[in-house]
Amino acid sequence: MGMAQAMASSMGGIRTAGDLVARMQLKKMRLTEAKRYVADKLGVSTLDLCDSTLMRTLREELDIGVVTGTPGIAKGLAAKARIEALLDVTVNSVEGLRRKTETTGLSRP
Amino acid sequence: MTTIITRMGDGSTVELTRDQLKEDILDGSEAAAKKGKIPALSESDRDYLLEMFCCPSRIWGVERGHEAIMSKDGGTNTLISSRLSCGVAAPIGREAAVRLFESAFAFDTMEVGHIDYSVKPSKFIVSVEQEHMELLQQTTILPLFYGFMPNLGLYYKPDGPFENPSDLLPKGQIAEARATQEEALEACYEDVVWQAKQMEETGADGINLDTVASTGDAEFLATLRACETISSETEMAVEVSMAAEMVLGFHGEVEYKGTRLAGLWPHQQMKLAQEAGAAVFGPVINNNTRKSCAWNVARAVTFVKACTAEAEIPIHVNVGGGVGGVPMVEVSPLDIVSRAGAAMIEVGKADGL
Predict the structure, then answer these.
(1) With contacts defined as CB-CB under 8 Å, which chain A residues touch B81?
(2) Distance (Å) of CA B162 to CA B152, B154, B158, B184
(3) A92 to chain B, minimum CA–CA distance in Å?
(4) Yes or no, beta carbons of A1 and B71 under 8 Å apart
(5) Quick one: which of A37, B12, B156, B225 is 20 to 30 A from A74 by CA?
(6) Every domain of chain B and the residues it spans
(7) Do B314 and A29 touch (CB under 8 A)?
């Protein structure tokens, strides 16, 4: 059932910019405002946000993760760290990574 | 006379004329308007629904550019659970399942949830839940919630420690029935907040409180208070998704910030969820299996439109088995599922499903 809705009505997650718009909805933005915000950050139109052809290339250029298994492109936390910077938001898991990787004065060669 | 192949609310196939569909759409919308004291759908809205239901295409979708956001309840139960969750019992773990939802099914958001999807059973294995959330936060990109049902019913005997109001009410022990609900909701509130806070350290992007008010107004109060606490004391977004279109007054007198909870309709529930700090609200509109899907979708969309008209937060309509215009059947028919979802967005102005 969810698959039918996903195909018929949803933005398509990391195939397009669905995950990015979703992140702005979690900041309480309604759909139109969230799309406008993300489109402005990406430098595209709101129509482009749902265009999987355009977004596949753009996501690779921005290195924020893509839907196909492509070596070398940011995944997981790395992608989310880049999304944080792109959208000017805080992502909880990236905050957690920062806490875990804070150095305590260890010297480096 | 030409007929259109469509369905009833129980999923069975029926042939209706265009005029019958038109009448059902009007009837369904007016039924919602009367119940909820909200505006009925306009003629142009009804025309859209009629065109949609008359179209012979198996799948109907939103217009390009109008796509919305999907959030999920039930975690990965669609894949890994049994028929009780309309699941297909796929032989994979939750981690693989979430990754499939992200990449193969292209969901916008996803969630981790216990297969026994209530807060009371999932509390005991919270460390397993935390581990899976942490591991998935390393590898996924989409926003990932932790989801569960407050499910106040599990706090009553025989499943829980509190006296069961369902046993007390038939004996006329109304004061006692109310008292036990007031005690149980405190325990439920504590558990919901505790479970949610366990997830913050794991990197969860949000908490999905699902089928809220399944046992009525006391559960709704516990959830609203928990939402207020979680949203003010953590950085996680809270999605509040309802169980039914009207809050059942099992207690009858509990209030949240001066508003009595019993008898509230979706557009009224939304306002309280919003006030409690929810980031997303998920209204539910129940199906009538004796009416056509066109009737049910028209009725549901009327309620949704009243909700979205006044919302300041995103509205993700529940379009699942028996709600939101989707027939009450184990295997949902794609022709109606796709239509119900599109109608919620195009006519209802929902921000998601």
Answers:
(1) none
(2) 10, 9, 9, 6
(3) 5
(4) no
(5) A37
(6) 3-346
(7) yes
Whether the CB-CB separation of B301 and B293 falls below 8 Å is answered with: no
Chain B contact set for A30 (CB, 8 A):
311-314, 351
Give A17 to chain B, closest Cα distance, Å.
8
Q: Cβ contact (<8 Å) for B326 and A1? A: yes
Cross-chain CB nearest to A22 (options B143, B338, B342): B143
| Cβ–Cβ below 8 Å for B353 and A18 | no
- CA dist., res. B57 & res. B147, Å (int): 35
Place of tokens 């295997």: B331
pLDDT single digits (tens) B301-344: 999 999 999 999 999 999 988 999 999 888 899 999 999 999 99
ipTM of the complex: 0.95
DSSP output for chain A: -HHHHHHHHB--GGGTTHHHHHHHHTTT--HHHHHHHHHHHHTS-TTGGG-HHHHHHHHHHHTS--SS--TTS--HHHHHHHHHHHHT---HHHHHHHHHH---S----
pLDDT tens-digit series, residues B191-226: 999 999 999 989 999 999 999 999 999 999 999 999
Residue that has been written with the tokens 């509190």 in this structure: B162
The model's confidence at residue A103, banded by pLDDT at 50, 70 and 90, is: low
Closest chain A residue to the Cα of B62, Cα to Cα:
A9
Residue A64 distance to chain B (closest CA, Å): 8
pLDDT in tens, A65-88: 999 999 999 999 999 999 999 999
Q: For residues B155 and B163, give the distance between their C-alpha atoms in angstroms, rounded to a whole number.
A: 9
pLDDT of residue A34: 98
Out of 1.10.530, 2.40.50, 3.30.70, 3.20.20, select the CATH number for domain B3-346.
3.20.20
Kindly determine whether residue B106 and residue A96, on different chains, have CB atoms separated by under 8 Å.
no
